[in-house]
Write a structure and sequence with these properties.
about 110 residues; mainly alpha; elongated
C-alpha cells in the first residue's frame, strides 16, 4: 500500500478540512459520506494518520474533487516549500564554505 510521506500529511489534512468546510460538512457528516469514523477524519485533518493513495482517491471521488485539484492546492505548495528549503540550505552551505576559505586565506 502506497502512502504519502510524513511531511505532506499535514498539508493533505488541511486540504481535507478546507474541502469539508467548503461543503459545510461537520466531521461526522463527512465521515458518514466516506464510510469512516469521525475520529479518522480528525486524524487525517491533523496529519496524525498517513493517508494512502487509495483512501485519497476514494475521498476525492466522494467529495467531488480531482487529483488535479489536490495537486494544485497541496502538492505544488509542498514541492515549492521543499525547493525553498533546499535553496536556503545550499546557500548556507556555500556561505560557510566561502567563510572557511577566507579564514584560511584561500581567497
Amino acid at each position: 500500500m502506497l502512502r504519502f510521506s510524513n511531511g505532506i500529511n499535514a498539508d493533505l489534512g488541511f486540504y481535507l478540512k478546507v474541502i469539508r468546510k467548503e461543503q459545510r460538512l461537520s466531521g461526522i457528516e463527512m465521515a458518514k459520506i466516506l464510510n469512516i469514523s469521525q475520529q479518522q477524519i480528525s486524524r487525517y485533518e491533523t496529519g496524525k494518520t498517513k493517508i494512502t493513495f487509495e483512501a485519497m482517491d476514494e475521498i476525492l471521488k466522494k467529495m467531488n474533487r480531482s487529483w488535479e485539484d489536490l495537486f494544485n492546492n497541496v502538492l505544488i505548495k509542498h514541492d515549492s516549500d521543499r525547493q525553498r528549503d533546499f535553496i536556503k540550505n545550499e546557500s548556507y552551505f556555500y556561505l560557510m564554505k566561502l567563510k572557511n576559505m577566507r579564514e584560511i586565506n584561500l581567497i
